[in-house]
Design goal:
about 200 residues; globular
């Protein structure tokens, strides 16, 4: 059974927990809070990088490496397209999610006012992308949704986006948040973030 070392407040760790849940991969999670990493994690990564995954005695860290491994080792359901052109487009879109949106949130906690304003504006500018297809830029749940949903969970919980200003963004978020896998991916820390989801 895979073993996941996870910070319960980290966006990247949330992304991996969501991928594991969407793929239905039974696993054990070890919460690492406040830098209190267990010796087993330090043994293969002295930098204590989170998330970290151990599967079949293979230790891995760095969110992109773990994402690729999970999709290749556990291929159903697939999180990436099959053909090279579509895979490249997905990777580019993933890069934009990380650079344009995720980078405006701190690893843990609420962003400052300026970052929150920039994130709200950026998501608002991309509003048309959220209702163009059933999932983000696709017909099925993908790595793009897995990367985006932890961002939107924080953005809605902290009141950065609202239904009044970004209805398509919040409607997409509501649909995705209702998925059983998303609910299973939430840590207790994430469930408590910011009070009630924006409406």
């Amino acid at each position: 059974m895979p073993l996941l070392y996870s910070d319960p407040a980290s966006i990247d760790c949330h992304r991996i927990r969501l991928l594991l849940a969407e793929k239905g991969i039974a696993h054990e999670t070890v919460d690492v809070i406040g830098g209190n990493a267990p010796d087993a994690l330090r043994a293969f990564d002295p930098n204590e990088t989170l998330p970290a995954l151990v599967d079949r005695e293979l230790p891995l860290y760095e969110v992109g490496v773990i994402t690729d491994y999970l999709d290749e080792r556990y291929p159903h359901p697939p999180m990436m397209p099959v053909d090279p052109v579509s895979r490249a487009r997905s990777r580019l879109a993933l890069h934009r999610i990380q650079v344009d949106w995720q980078a405006l949130l701190p690893l843990r906690g609420k962003p400052g006012a300026k970052q929150a304003e920039r994130l709200a504006a950026a998501l608002g500018e991309a509003a048309d992308l959220f209702d163009a297809m059933p999932f983000f830029l696709g017909e099925a749940f993908s790595i793009l949704d897995a990367a985006l949903l932890p961002v939107l969970w924080r953005a809605t919980r902290y009141g950065i986006v609202s239904r009044a200003e970004s209805p398509s963004v919040v409607a997409y978020a509501d649909r995705m948040f209702a998925r059983p896998a998303f609910q299973a991916s939430l840590s207790s820390t994430e469930r408590d973030m910011g009070g009630e989801t924006a409406r």
